[in-house]
Specification:
It comes from Alkalibacterium subtropicum. The protein has 285 residues and is an alpha/beta fold. It is built from eleven helices and 13 strands. Helix 5 packs antiparallel against helix 6.
Length: 285
């Protein structure tokens, strides 16, 4: 059985990964007044944050339509028997629900939507794993079983400079965000059950990054499998690179990679967000 792996643009994979691993994606969009830009297609991450700086009004984001997903699946049915479609958390976007609604309309290919319950690097781990397993000839059920295991072991922690957009967009509760904003603290945020929550409340970004480091240290000590960690940022490459280099020195047994938070996630985190996620390194099992 030939299985296609589909995701959306919020996985923020690079061009080589899409091409070499036969991964397909459907883009989400950002909207500046009446201008609509499909991320990773019409606008890059850097161009987005530059445009935000110049814009008087904050942009909004938009999920792919049922038509967008249907068109992609119909194209894939020419060469594949099934699709595993992995998307950002259904608690923060309707992308997964739209993929799910398409399932019954597809006659010539079986579509299996999968809720990552995460976004960005966490979502990307699942996509890479699915692509690897599909190449190795595993069945749909076997792949989904492995995705569930990886998802359970994946940790995500990040810090934003300003919580306003997360609160306004409903991605962070007003109660948690309001307290943090009023006290001018830098909460360490995480995903739990597909929702963004405040994991810990810390006064400075430097101390918040140290907290993330300590959480990684706990995982390194506890886990009996190799770890891969991704340092992500929203238009804060120098800060993220410095943090990654520090982590590489302190955790030589962890494989570190870099990624970014693009336009759609950047709408909510704002510029300057930095974080790290880690999980099972399937490349070294």
């Amino acid at each position: 059985m030939r299985i296609a792996i589909v995701t959306d643009s919020t996985a923020y994979l690079n061009k080589e990964e899409y091409e070499q691993d036969n991964i397909y994606f459907v883009p989400l969009s950002v909207i500046f007044k009446n201008e609509v830009f499909k991320e990773e297609v019409d606008i890059t991450s850097d161009a987005f944050f530059e445009k935000v700086r110049e814009s008087e009004q904050l942009p909004t984001s938009s999920q792919p339509t049922v038509g967008d997903l249907t068109a992609l699946y119909q194209e894939l049915e020419k060469d594949y028997d099934a699709v595993i479609s992995i998307h950002l958390s259904s608690r923060i976007s309707g992308t997964f629900q739209n993929a799910y609604s398409v399932v019954q309309t597809m006659d010539n290919i079986n579509v299996y939507p999968y809720d990552s319950e995460m976004a960005a690097a966490g979502q990307a781990y699942l996509v890479r794993a699915a692509a690897k397993l599909a190449k190795e000839g595993h069945s749909v059920n076997e792949i989904i079983e492995q995705l569930d295991k990886i998802k359970q072991e994946t940790k995500i922690y990040f810090i934003v400079d300003d919580l306003t957009n997360l609160i306004k967009g409903g991605r962070l509760s007003r109660a948690a965000g309001g307290v943090a904003t009023a006290l001018k603290i830098k909460p360490v945020l995480t995903f739990r059950g597909g929702e963004i929550i405040a994991y810990d409340k810390i006064r400075t970004k430097k101390k918040a990054l140290k907290k993330i480091e300590s959480l990684l240290a706990e995982s390194v000590k506890e886990k009996d499998y190799p770890l891969v960690a991704t340092v992500v940022h929203a238009y804060a490459e120098d800060e993220a690179q410095a943090f990654k280099e520090q982590m590489e020195d302190k955790f030589p047994d962890v494989r570190f990679i870099s990624s970014f938070l693009g336009p759609v996630v950047g709408v909510h985190t704002g510029e300057g967000a930095v974080g790290m996620s880690w999980t099972i390194d399937i490349e070294r099992l």
